[in-house]
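in:
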Protein backbone atom coordinates (compact mmCIF):
# COMPACT_ATOMS: atom_id res chain seq x y z
CA UNK A 1 0.00 0.00 0.00
CA UNK A 2 2.81 2.41 0.87
CA UNK A 3 4.55 1.67 -2.44
CA UNK A 4 1.38 2.54 -4.33
CA UNK A 5 1.08 5.84 -2.45
CA UNK A 6 4.72 6.75 -3.15
CA UNK A 7 4.38 5.74 -6.81
CA UNK A 8 1.20 7.82 -7.19
CA UNK A 9 2.78 10.87 -5.58
CA UNK A 10 5.87 10.52 -7.78
CA UNK A 11 3.71 10.23 -10.90
CA UNK A 12 1.69 13.32 -9.94
CA UNK A 13 4.82 15.40 -9.29
CA UNK A 14 6.55 14.15 -12.41
CA UNK A 15 3.62 14.69 -14.76
CA UNK A 16 1.44 17.49 -13.38
CA UNK A 17 0.04 18.56 -16.78
CA UNK A 18 -2.00 15.37 -17.30
CA UNK A 19 -3.17 15.66 -13.67
CA UNK A 20 -4.39 19.20 -14.41
CA UNK A 21 -6.25 18.03 -17.51
CA UNK A 22 -7.85 15.09 -15.69
CA UNK A 23 -8.85 17.25 -12.74
CA UNK A 24 -10.27 19.90 -15.09
CA UNK A 25 -12.39 17.29 -16.89
CA UNK A 26 -13.83 16.12 -13.56
CA UNK A 27 -14.36 19.68 -12.33
CA UNK A 28 -16.04 20.62 -15.62
CA UNK A 29 -18.36 17.67 -15.30
CA UNK A 30 -19.47 18.63 -11.77
CA UNK A 31 -19.49 22.42 -12.14
CA UNK A 32 -22.00 24.20 -14.31
CA UNK A 33 -19.74 27.11 -15.17
CA UNK A 34 -16.54 26.71 -17.15
CA UNK A 35 -14.70 29.44 -15.21
CA UNK A 36 -15.59 27.91 -11.84
CA UNK A 37 -14.08 24.63 -13.04
CA UNK A 38 -10.95 26.44 -14.21
CA UNK A 39 -10.60 28.26 -10.89
CA UNK A 40 -11.12 25.08 -8.90
CA UNK A 41 -8.51 23.32 -11.04
CA UNK A 42 -6.02 26.13 -10.48
CA UNK A 43 -6.67 26.09 -6.73
CA UNK A 44 -6.21 22.34 -6.49
CA UNK A 45 -3.14 21.99 -8.71
CA UNK A 46 -1.10 25.03 -7.59
CA UNK A 47 0.68 23.05 -4.83
CA UNK A 48 1.37 20.27 -7.32
CA UNK A 49 3.17 22.69 -9.62
CA UNK A 50 5.06 24.28 -6.72
CA UNK A 51 6.34 20.88 -5.60
CA UNK A 52 7.04 19.84 -9.20
CA UNK A 53 9.20 22.93 -9.72
CA UNK A 54 11.05 22.06 -6.53
CA UNK A 55 11.67 18.50 -7.76
CA UNK A 56 12.82 19.73 -11.17
CA UNK A 57 15.25 22.16 -9.55
CA UNK A 58 16.59 19.31 -7.40
CA UNK A 59 17.08 17.08 -10.43
CA UNK A 60 18.54 19.68 -12.78
CA UNK A 61 20.82 21.60 -10.41
CA UNK A 62 21.39 19.05 -7.60
CA UNK A 63 20.59 21.71 -5.01
CA UNK A 64 17.69 22.37 -2.67
CA UNK A 65 15.81 25.56 -3.62
CA UNK A 66 12.85 25.08 -1.27
CA UNK A 67 13.77 28.09 0.88
CA UNK A 68 14.00 30.29 -2.22
CA UNK A 69 10.61 29.03 -3.39
CA UNK A 70 9.09 29.91 0.00
CA UNK A 71 10.66 33.39 -0.09
CA UNK A 72 9.35 33.87 -3.64
CA UNK A 73 5.86 32.84 -2.50
CA UNK A 74 6.00 35.32 0.39
CA UNK A 75 7.05 38.07 -2.02
CA UNK A 76 4.13 37.18 -4.30
CA UNK A 77 1.77 37.34 -1.32
CA UNK A 78 3.19 40.71 -0.33
CA UNK A 79 2.74 42.03 -3.85
CA UNK A 80 -0.83 40.75 -3.87
CA UNK A 81 -1.55 42.56 -0.60
CA UNK A 82 0.07 45.78 -1.84
CA UNK A 83 -1.86 45.66 -5.13
CA UNK A 84 -5.13 45.17 -3.30
CA UNK A 85 -4.36 47.99 -0.88
CA UNK A 86 -3.54 50.38 -3.73
CA UNK A 87 -6.71 49.44 -5.57
CA UNK A 88 -9.21 49.47 -2.69
CA UNK A 89 -7.40 51.12 0.27
CA UNK A 90 -8.78 48.19 2.22
CA UNK A 91 -7.21 44.75 2.39
CA UNK A 92 -9.44 41.69 2.37
CA UNK A 93 -7.24 38.74 3.31
CA UNK A 94 -9.47 36.11 1.68
CA UNK A 95 -9.49 37.96 -1.63
CA UNK A 96 -5.75 38.62 -1.48
CA UNK A 97 -5.02 34.96 -0.77
CA UNK A 98 -7.24 33.89 -3.66
CA UNK A 99 -5.43 36.21 -6.07
CA UNK A 100 -2.06 35.14 -4.71
CA UNK A 101 -2.90 31.46 -5.15
CA UNK A 102 -4.06 31.92 -8.76
CA UNK A 103 -0.98 33.96 -9.65
CA UNK A 104 1.16 31.29 -8.01
CA UNK A 105 -0.51 28.69 -10.21
CA UNK A 106 0.28 30.67 -13.35
CA UNK A 107 3.84 31.52 -12.36
CA UNK A 108 4.77 28.02 -11.27
CA UNK A 109 3.12 26.49 -14.34
CA UNK A 110 5.37 28.69 -16.47
CA UNK A 111 8.39 27.82 -14.30
CA UNK A 112 7.56 24.12 -14.67
CA UNK A 113 7.27 24.36 -18.46
CA UNK A 114 10.48 26.42 -18.72
CA UNK A 115 12.44 24.09 -16.46
CA UNK A 116 11.16 21.07 -18.37
CA UNK A 117 12.37 22.51 -21.66
CA UNK A 118 15.67 23.57 -20.07
CA UNK A 119 16.16 20.12 -18.55
CA UNK A 120 15.46 18.36 -21.83
CA UNK A 121 17.82 20.61 -23.78
CA UNK A 122 20.49 20.30 -21.08
CA UNK A 123 20.31 16.49 -21.14
CA UNK A 124 20.31 16.31 -24.93
CA UNK A 125 23.23 18.71 -25.42
CA UNK A 126 25.19 17.82 -22.30
Amino acid sequence: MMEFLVFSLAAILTLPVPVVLIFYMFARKFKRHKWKAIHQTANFTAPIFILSVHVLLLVIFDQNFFAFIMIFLLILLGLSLIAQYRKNHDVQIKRALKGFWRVSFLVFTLFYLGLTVYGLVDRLLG
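note: The chain has one domain: 1-125.
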